[in-house]
Structures are given as C-alpha cells and as structure tokens.
Amino acid sequence: MVGLKPPEVPPTAAVKFVSAGMAGCIADLCTFPLDTAKVRLQIQGEVKIPRTISSVEYRGVLGTLSTVVRTEGARSLYSGLAAGLQRQMSFASIRIGLSDSVKQLYTTKGTENTGLAARLLAGCTTGAVAVACAQPTDVVKVRFQASGAPSDSSRRYNGTVDAYRTIAREEGIRGLW
C-alpha cells in the first residue's frame, strides 16, 4: 500500500450520486431524533397524537425528546426512519450527486471555471428536481413522525410501502405531494 497515489480520474456521476445519497443517510441516522422533535413541536396543538398521558405538552427540543422517550419509548424517535432514508437517497443523490453534471450543462463549452450564474442555475435545478422527486418520501416520513407510537391495533399504516399506497388510495396521487 506504500506509494499508492489517489486516482487522478475524477469520480463518475454515478459514484457521486450514490455517495451523496449514502452520506445523506448517515447524516439522517444521526439527526433523525431532532427531526422528529421538530415535527412534534410544529404540529403541537394542531393534531391530537394518541398518548398514554393525555395532556402532554412539548417544551423545546430537549424537552420534546425526553417527553417522547418517557411516554412512547426511545424507538418512537426513529418512527418513519425508512421513509427518511428513502428521502435522503433520492433528495441528496439528486441535489448533491448530480450538481457537477448539471453545472456542465449551464457552462459555456471551453470555459475552465464555472461562473456564478451556472452554479446558481445548477443548484436551483437540482434542488427543484430533488424536491419534486423526494416529496412523497417526506410526506410519509412526517406522517410516521407525527403519529407517535400507536398500539398495533390503532396503527394507521402497516409499514412504509403501505403508507404510500394508503395515501395514494385515500387522498389520490396528489396527496403524496
């Protein structure tokens, strides 16, 4: 292994695409409880979440995390993780992984440096496409995060794929967006 140099060939678009999605998934695994707390704080007062304690009120991020763990269990902090990882694989892969390829579309041929306009257009393009593609995964993720830890008898969805199907069936395909 001594004397090996890093490859001089840049990674392909496919490698960037997969690497960006995997990096997003690793980040999501670390921050998912904070996202769950954010969702709970955002919907507090709007939706009745089934709980063992009827008058639970969330106060701040740390208070929300401790209340969820105390009333629903630690696993509840990761409710919707499968959809969250699906979101990262689609969103981060498109937004970050395809950024360089899209920049080339907006760069004049023969130009060495990418200008500010090309970088802004590439960011807007990949961001818009990523949001459009990843929105159904975000809808399902938030539904799971907002639902708390229901008992098996009151569970609305029997998994992530069932959630996509149920939302599409009950609310139409537009319900996923």
UniProtKB/TrEMBL annotation:
Superkingdom per UniProt: Eukaryota
Single GO BP term: transmembrane transport
Keywords: Membrane, Repeat, Transmembrane, Transmembrane helix, Transport
Membrane-topology annotation of the record: Multi-pass membrane protein
Subcellular location: Membrane
One term under GO cellular component: membrane
Primary localization: membrane
Family annotation (InterPro entries): MCP, MCP_dom_sf, MCP_transmembrane, Mito_Metabolite_Transporter
Entry keyword annotation includes Transport: yes
Pfam families per record: Mito_carr (PF00153)
Positions of Solcar repeats: 11-105, 114-177
Family: Belongs to the mitochondrial carrier (TC 2.A.29) family.
Protein name, entry field: UCP3 protein
